[in-house]
């Protein structure tokens, strides 16, 4: 089951972090159509955030057509964003690259900035997903 990690120092709204993490899990194939998202109560207990924040994130995912709330049953994945499964050979290559970057003394934010720069260079005009 998906476990959300909330970074209170990121500057990104908590509900958006939930939306982004759900989308990432969909892209990696960790969530598939029919899978159930954690109940809002479970997310609140695990992350100590307001229940309305979780519900706002789930409503946003529903508005985007990614999930469907079934009264009394929970919130379920409607469609995938697939394309980069977690067992992709690219995952192994990126893992090795990240290990080398960390061993070289790079900080997480530095690695993220470098990676974003490379993505921008190769995916100009593709927009955000």
Task: Characterise this structure.
This protein is mainly α. It has five helices and two strands. It has helices at 14-27, 40-47, 51-63, 89-103, 108-122, and strands at 67-70, 74-77. Helix 1 packs across helix 3. It is globular.
Backbone structural class: mainly alpha
Helix content range: 40-55%
Mean pLDDT: 91
Distance between the termini: 23 Å
- Give the beta-strand count: 2
User: What is the string of helix and strand elements?
Assistant: HHHEEHH
Broad shape: globular
Give the gist of this structure.
50% of the residues lie in helices and 6% in strands. It is mainly alpha-helical and 129 residues long. The chain has a two-stranded antiparallel ribbon.
Key terms for this structure?
129 residues; mainly alpha; two-stranded antiparallel sheet; globular
Set out the fold topology.
Blueprint: H1 14-27, H2 40-47, H3 51-63, E1 67-70, E2 74-77, H4 89-103, H5 108-122
Antiparallel strand pairs: 1-2
Helix pairs in contact: 1-3
């Amino acid at each position: 089951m998906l476990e959300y990690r909330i970074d209170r120092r990121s500057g990104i709204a908590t509900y958006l972090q939930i939306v982004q993490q759900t989308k990432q899990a969909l892209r990696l194939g960790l969530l598939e159509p029919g899978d159930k998202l954690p109940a809002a109560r479970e997310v609140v207990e695990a992350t100590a955030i307001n229940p309305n924040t979780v519900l706002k994130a789930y409503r946003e995912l529903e508005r985007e057509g990614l999930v469907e709330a079934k009264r009394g049953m929970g919130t379920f994945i409607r469609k995938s964003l697939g394309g980069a499964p977690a067992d992709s050979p690219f995952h192994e290559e990126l893992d090795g690259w990240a290990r080398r970057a960390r061993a070289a003394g790079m900080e997480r934010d530095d690695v993220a900035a470098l990676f974003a720069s490379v993505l921008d260079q190769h995916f100009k005009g593709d927009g955000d997903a």
